[in-house]
Amino acid sequence: MASPPAKGVKVPALVLLASASAALLLFLLLPSLAPSSSCPASYLAAAGDQQMPYQIAPSADDVNWLRSQIHMNSLPDPSNTPGAWHSLRKGINPRTRSQQLEDLLKFKGISHYEDAGLNHTELPCPGELLVEEHHSNYGEPWAGGRDVFEFLAPAVSLQPSDLVLEVGCGTLRVGVHFIRYLDPGHFSCLERDELSLIAALRYELPSQGLLHKRPLILKGDDMDFSRFGVDNSYDLIYASAVFLHIPDQLVWVGLERLTFKLKPIKGRIFISHNIKFCWRIKEECPRRLERIGLGYIGNHTHDSLLFNHYEIWYEFRKHGK
């Protein structure tokens, strides 16, 4: 007598089909549910198309190597008080920055020409710049400029032949790294502060050996980018904590003008810290961005390498491109 068919075989098959469907649905939903990444989506897409000519940010191996060098030299952890830190200063005449400035003003340095006619200095520089007082003009350490470069350059898979525009480059805390990386004449900046421009042009460029890079740095506070040329199309435009200090209406004027300067498809605009100019008008913001031809991609968080700090960057591109 034949055995009756095993009805229980149908149940595992249905369960298997349901499980497979659920797994597929979860796989499709994961990208939309995932939070903003510290590695920009634009970089993930661009990195496969065009590789960076050389490494920008340190790798885990680099960091481990540095730690091994510190350990090999038996260097202690940094002191946590100013007094303990300053006690480590050694030398014939260890000086603070303010003491260095006092020496320069009083004694004109160590060796100098008494006769002004014998002064061979090609680019006389104020003492305040020589002791780098302008490095303390920011709300965070000067080293933060390198952090910005190490985030933005890979974010667009930046090539030395690309064009970069910074809105408000200040004393070139960030800019020096882009200028060094890019081909001559490929970095531009609009800056309104006269003291910052003096520090950038009279000290940072010559002291960093970057005069041959010929960056285009212009003074202005009206978001007028026409002076940078009508044919220029930028691969990267960024503003680091600049739009916080500009009236919203002028920010929107600037964004509309910058959209025309942005390269289609690849070009990106990055704005750091926040976009209050957008949040303040709430649901009107997406419509206004669309009217000026700009699309919002998302935000990304980047950590500092050397101090406890992170920045949030908001990414835009030409709408529909």
TrEMBL record:
CDD domains xref list: AdoMet_MTases (cd02440)
Species name: Platanthera zijinensis
Taxonomic classification: Eukaryota, Viridiplantae, Streptophyta, Embryophyta, Tracheophyta
Domain of life of the native organism: Eukaryota
Protein name in UniProt: S-adenosylmethionine-dependent methyltransferase
